Amino acid sequence: RRARAAACATAPAVTRDGTTVAVGANVGSVADARAAVARGADLVGLIRTEFLFLGRDTAPDTGEQEAAYREIAEAFGGRRITVRTLDVGGDKPLPYVAAAGEDNPFLGVRGIRHSLAHPALLADQLLAIALVARAAPVSVMFPMVSTVAELVHARRMLTEAIARAGGDEGGLRVGLMMEVPAAALKAAAFAPYADFFSVGTNDLTQYALAAERGNAAVAALADGLDPGVLRLIDAVCRGAGGRVAVSVCGELAGDEAAVPLLLGYGVRELSVAPRAVPVVKEAVRAAGLDHATKLAARALQLEDAAAVRDLAANAPHR
Ligand code: PEP
Ligand code: MG
């Protein structure tokens, strides 16, 4: 199975009934991007740009960022790359940005909140992204968005960056991560301002189940297959209403058992760790959308993640 997955790596992932699902990679360095190409990734669904900002004394300037994003775009040879704006703050402070101590950093100034509080940093990053977007298909994605006002504010800054970059938008698409439960539930309110939603199941699960990610003592609770989390993903897809593309870039997308469920809710793009690309493509090829839709609906009625896993493991593929 593994050998077959490797052989099929670069072929597109098409369900039994002929629907193509893009399988992208999450990357946190230029080296990751090269590994992802080798594993057959169709695109980059998430660049964790923190790698450029952490572990140093000053912020990378626009030129340094532009060079790194361009290198990733070039490694992907014309396929789309999704650049997430800086997702720091709270538990990942930057030494060169003054930050107030917080008792609950995961509920504090992180993601888009941090970027809007430090607009010069965001403006530089958006300019770098806009410059790369003139010559390559680029999507920009904002993390930890809770309100439409945050998205509108960030989009206004993006418009300014595009003007500074020469006014040519290229094929730039704009989206937000769905990782705050309230945002997922009101997804329809974001739809007029977004080309895509990307569900970040790592944070969405942490916030939905009130179980800190990375805390071993509550790791069993923080399961993305919990029906409460699946209801949020379903809500994102319904809020998207077929007009906004929905992808999943959290760890759940790399879980073979979850793939048919996600397709059943309406997700048509998955982005996973580079090493998981081949098996996720195989999971897509094994799925039929009709069956997946029924399976996904049944999962919403179950009582816990274990029951969802049983359902997924025991359901025939068609
Ligand atoms: C997520 O939260 O699911 C996600 C993909 O982002 P990160 O893991 O970088 O927070
Ligand atoms: Mg996240």
From TrEMBL:
Lineage: superkingdom: Bacteria
Subcellular location: Cytoplasm
Function of the molecule: Component of the dihydroxyacetone kinase complex, which is responsible for the phosphoenolpyruvate (PEP)-dependent phosphorylation of dihydroxyacetone. DhaM serves as the phosphoryl donor. Is phosphorylated by phosphoenolpyruvate in an EI- and HPr-dependent reaction, and a phosphorelay system on histidine residues finally leads to phosphoryl transfer to DhaL and dihydroxyacetone.
Quaternary structure note: Homodimer. The dihydroxyacetone kinase complex is composed of a homodimer of DhaM, a homodimer of DhaK and the subunit DhaL.
Family affiliation: Belongs to the PEP-utilizing enzyme family.
Protein name: Phosphocarrier protein HPr
Organism: Couchioplanes caeruleus subsp. caeruleus
Shown residues in whole-protein numbering: 511 to 828 of 828
